[in-house]
Write a structure and sequence with these properties.
- By secondary structure, this protein is mainly alpha-helical.
- The chain has a single domain, classed as Orthogonal Bundle (yeast vps74-n-term truncation variant fold), CATH 1.10.3630.
- About 60% of the residues lie in helices and about 10% in strands.
- The chain contains ten helices and five strands, in the order ααββαβααββααααα.
Length: about 210
């Protein structure tokens, strides 16, 4: 099964032995940025002076990407930050439903409070995506394909699966990868930094 970029970044974001995501708001932005980037790499979106516009319609071969593209087709040109910020929670939920239907996620009832949570059915799939992101940071640039470049650049921008320390240590490589990926990466980085600042401010005020 060929995974879309949103599915790959979701798996990368799954943490621990259980393979669950912990920060839904940040992962929602990451998944949304991955969907926008995937459409850009497929030639369905284009950048015109810092604005994104739809350049191609029709099925992409992925239901989530089809839905995102259909929604974007209803609008005119929009900023990349707007596209990454828009409908993130809905995009995340749609992706999770798709992964559950594909058997890649499963529902689990926690012992504490009996909450329904989602877990990766095969933890090796999450480890594989993290390994691909790590390889993109260390392998010769000529050997890193565009999808893996996007995986690593987006993960680092969201500080998901790639720590802030690792991102700092590999800043030059990430800049090179980001140039191949497109405007959604800096847009995601900006939004994640703003989210972090808002949370820090809220914490400082009790």
């Amino acid at each position: 099964m060929t995974l879309s970029l949103p599915a790959r970044v979701y798996l990368l974001a799954c943490e621990g032995d259980k393979g669950r995501i912990s920060d839904r708001r940040r992962v929602a932005m990451l998944v949304r940025a991955a969907a926008v980037t995937d459409l850009l790499l497929r030639g369905r979106l284009a950048d015109h002076g810092g604005k994104a516009s739809v350049t191609g319609r029709g099925p992409t071969g992925d239901l989530l990407l089809d839905d995102v593209l259909a929604n974007l087709s209803e609008d005119g040109e929009r900023s990349w930050r707007s596209l990454v910020r828009r409908d993130g929670a809905d995009t995340l939920k749609s992706l999770e439903l798709q992964l559950v239907a594909a058997g890649m996620l499963r529902q689990h009832t926690t012992r504490f409070l009996g909450r329904q949570v989602l877990e990766v059915a095969d933890p090796a799939s999450a480890r594989r995506e993290r390994g691909r992101a790590e390889a993109a940071l260390r392998d010769p640039l000529s050997e890193v394909d565009t999808d893996d470049a996007a995986l690593a650049a987006l993960a680092a921008a969201a500080a998901v699966g790639v720590t802030r320390r690792e991102a700092w240590a590999n800043s030059e490589r990430l800049a090179e990868l980001g140039e191949r990926v497109g405007p959604a990466v800096p847009a995601l980085r900006h939004l994640v930094r703003r989210l972090r600042a808002v949370r820090a401010s809220a914490g400082s005020h009790g």
